[in-house]
Amino acid sequence: MCSFLHWLCPYFLPSLGPILGFPVINTDITVSELTFGPATSLAMISSCVSEGMTKALRQAEVQLLEPCTVLEVSVSEDHLGQVLADLSSARRAQIQEVGLQGGSQGERLVTALTPLACLMVNLSCDIEVQINYAFSQYLCGVIV
Question: Which of 26, 4, 3 is nearest to 14 (CA)?
């Protein structure tokens, strides 16, 4: 029976997690007891183990870690409002700082923390901007 459980547990680790179907990683699951009769099929066992693991993961309050980037946008002061609106709404950015760009008149540098997935959406403004970004950290959140 132990060799059967040793084979069974890795086989049924969920590839689709309880939050938006993202994979579950760095998780250990221990099946402490499994009772079945001679007429029990492998499909029945797999269904029960899968349902049990899904329930356990939901009760464990699993969190989704979302990769975030530090984003720097250089934009003219005339278009600053449009860029800030785009960042805070469509890109779910947390604006960190709005400052002068290199001492030049009329140029602003916006620094924000933004989920990586939100950078893949086209800019909603028809303006010229210069964008630099780099991975920063993983934050708990749910991709909308």
Answer: 26
Helix, strand, or coil here: 43? helix
We find that the CATH architecture of domain 65-140 is: 2-Layer Sandwich (3.30)
Residue 138, number of CB atoms within 10 A of its CB: 13
Q: Please tell me the pTM assigned to this model.
A: 0.55
Q: For strand 130-140 and strand 94-100, is the pairing parallel, antiparallel, or unpaired?
A: unpaired
For the chain, the structural domain boundaries read 2-59, 65-140
Measured CA to CA, the distance from residue 101 to residue 76 in angstroms comes to 9
| Overall size of the chain counted in residues | 144
Give pLDDT tens digits for 108-134. Answer: 889 998 888 787 766 555 566 677 777
Closest to 71 (Cα-Cα) out of 93, 49, 45: 93
Residue 40 CB coordination number (10 Å):
12
